[in-house]
Design a protein that fits this description.
Layout (H helix, E strand, L loop, with lengths): L15 H5 L3 E6 L4 H12 L5 E5 L7 E3 L11 E5 L2 H14 L3 E3 L7 H8 L2 E3 L5 E4 L4 E4 L7 E8 L2 H14 L3 E6 L8 H10 L6 E4 L6 H12 L4 E4 L3 H4 L4 H13 L2 E3 L2 H12 L8
């Protein structure tokens, strides 16, 4: 008698598509944190077609769930708006359910260690969040929903992100991706750039660089991305980090070799973004 073939088991772990093309999102939130209400409102108002769950607070447009164990399915992406003491237990519970991608828009001391111990990958700490306008997903702290377009923004500063989103709305320009790297103690620029280099929805890439976790990985990913689309980097305050200016000069030379245009001010970044956003993609023979 022939036994039926066993189906291969899905290997648990982080998948890029869970972050960049999620089908379901869970918000784990403490109502006492001001970011919780903003995230709940933005998630509900974005027009996302997938399932949206809320744990810890009641929010219109989100399915209320008692805890992670009670989730009807493992979400692709989790947004953790929780105090530090509650973060690692929540990450461990999510990983046990099969969710390995997270965003932490709040302070998260020891985030790298929490990710290593739980097997999760996370944006943060103090991430501005994630916005994918074409999917109707606004898991960010933005004050408005950006329109779909071809600009991609990877930012560390929430203030810079809001300024660029405001400017783009006035110019009627849209975004393919807005990703808040935050303090860059979790998922960093390299992974996001690797994805954007392969995503035909993304056009010009705007970078707000403040802290680079792994310079070699960043430069390699930036070079690969710059081969297929323009990349412009704002790196303010270089001499404040290193008064001698040596480290800043080394970084500028590395960016230039990678094909990345470095600008020193927000106005220069916006001017470059406007020009690049209005260019039509070149047709390949």
């Amino acid at each position: 008698m022939k036994l039926p073939l066993a189906l291969p088991r899905r290997t648990p772990g982080f998948r890029e598509t869970a972050l960049f093309r999620p089908r379901s999102v869970a918000l784990l939130a403490d109502p006492a944190l001001p970011e919780s209400a903003v995230l709940a409102r933005n998630l509900a108002a974005g027009g996302f077609k997938g399932r949206l769950f809320a744990i810890g607070l009641a929010a219109p447009g989100l399915e209320a769930v008692a805890d992670v164990a009670a989730l009807p399915e493992a979400p692709d992406l989790a947004v953790l708006c929780l105090p530090p003491a509650a973060q690692e237990p929540a990450m461990a519970a999510l990983a046990a359910r099969g969710c390995f991608a997270a965003i932490l828009p709040v302070a998260a001391p020891g985030l790298a260690g929490m990710c290593e111990r739980t097997g999760m990958r996370a944006l943060g700490a103090h991430s501005f969040g994630l916005c994918l306008p074409a999917l109707g997903l606004n898991a960010s702290l933005s004050h408005l929903m950006p329109k779909p377009g071809r600009l991609a923004l990877l930012c560390q500063s929430g203030a810079v992100a809001r300024a660029i989103i405001d400017w783009a709305a006035g110019e009627e320009l849209g975004f393919s991706h807005i990703l808040g790297i935050g303090t860059n103690h979790g998922l960093g620029f390299a992974l996001a750039l690797d994805w954007l280099a392969r995503d035909p929805a993304a056009g010009a890439v705007l970078l707000d660089l403040r802290r680079i976790k792994n310079r070699r990985m960043f430069i390699s990913a930036a070079r690969a991305t710059a081969r297929t689309r323009p990349v412009v980097a704002l790196r303010p305050g270089g001499r404040q980090i290193d008064a001698s200016g040596i480290a800043d000069a080394v970084m500028e030379a590395a960016l230039r070799r990678a094909g990345v245009l470095r600008v020193n001010g927000l106005e220069d970044l916006l001017a470059a973004a406007e020009t690049l956003a209005r260019l039509r993609p070149a047709l390949r023979a």
